[in-house]
Amino acid sequence: MAGRALTHIHFQLIATILVALVATCHAGSIAVYWGQNDGESSLSETCASGNYKFVILAFVYKFGKGQTPDLNLAGHCVPSSGNCKFLSKDIHSCQRRGIKVLLSVGGGEGSYGLSSESDAREVAAYLWNNYLGGTSSSRPLGDAILDGVDFDIEQGGAKFWDSLARDLKKLGKKKGSKGVLLSAAPQCPFPDEWDGGAINTGLFDFVWVQFYNNQPCQVSAGRGAFLAAWKRWQSVPAGKIFLGLPASKSAAGTGFVPAAQLRSQVLPLIKGSPKYGGVMLWSKFYDKGYSDAIKKHV
Questions:
Q1: What are the strands, taking DSSP E only, across 122-163?
Q2: How many CB atoms lie within 10 A of CB 109?
Q3: Of 32, 60, 246, 296, which residue is least crowded by CB atoms under 10 Å?
Q4: Distance (Å, whole) CA 281 – CA 31
Q5: Distance CA 279, CA 244 (A)
Q6: For residues 212 and 179, is the Cβ–Cβ distance under 8 A?
Q7: What does the pLDDT look like over 33-82, one tens digit per residue?
Q8: Cis amide linkage into residue 59, ω under 30° from 0
Q9: 48: how many CB neighbours lie within 10 A of its CB?
Q10: Are 112 and 173 in contact (CB under 8 A)?
Q11: Interior/surface letters 184-194, b for 16+ CB within 10 angstroms, e for the rest
């Protein structure tokens, strides 16, 4: 009897461990864009909330084709005047909390694009020296070393983004470097018109797919259409796939999913996916309680 009781205890223990492992495997995290509205929390406050694992600074909206790159952080500060270096302290604070801070290049508005492989190499070198592990006298955000680069390419042609990805990853392999994480924010129609070629390099750690402003594949299109789009994105050679959503109704034209619906109807459909990474929100300014309502369920 004692042997049977012990076996039963062992079985229960193993079952408990397995359940915990499955839960851990599919536990996701929240990524959020920051920097496009001066009415949002400071970067350090954003990270101190405990809601996010990734914070993406947006955007380097001007680069490539011989242009001097420029970062736009709305009303937070003006990088070209040198008054954004105070953010270095905030970035360090975020990173001490285990939060990855990435720099997004592109965006919906701006002047950017790549004209050749050598152009991509020059942009990669600029990003490396000014925001990542390299050195420059003009680092707009001070001495903080960001964790990676996010590709939010929505214009400027579809060529040479794969070259930029390869060059950035190569630079991240320099001796003493902590590496360079790569993420992308494609639209949900598959494959993405702009980011598709870069993502296919297999070099991207995270892909936060924009399931908004795209009615045929967002959640409101119905379970079948949404899941078909999600499965197509699961097929790309990338690390983790995130469900990109607006953080409020006013954050996007279409695609907002109420928190209760996300928790009960949407996340259960995708959390079992092998590449499920969590939820990406646009943006911190619009996130007035949404991440609080979903974080325990992501």
A1: 148-153
A2: 11
A3: 296
A4: 6
A5: 6
A6: no
A7: 999 999 999 999 999 999 999 999 999 999 999 999 999 999 999 998 89
A8: yes
A9: 15
A10: no
A11: bbbbbebbbeb
Helical residues (DSSP H) of 136-235, grouped into ranges: 161-171, 196-199, 223-234
Tell me the pTM.
0.91
pLDDT at position 2 over 50: no
Rounded CA-CA distance 23/17 in Å is 10
Residues classed as catalytic: 154
Q: Name which of 170, 154, 145, 75 is nearest 113 in CA terms.
A: 154
Average pLDDT over residues 143-149: 98
- Contact yes or no for 250/211 (Cβ under 8 A): no
- Match 């009303």 to its residue by tokens: 75
pLDDT at 49: 98
Q: What is the distance between the alpha carbons of residues 61 and 50, in angstroms, rounded to a whole number?
A: 28
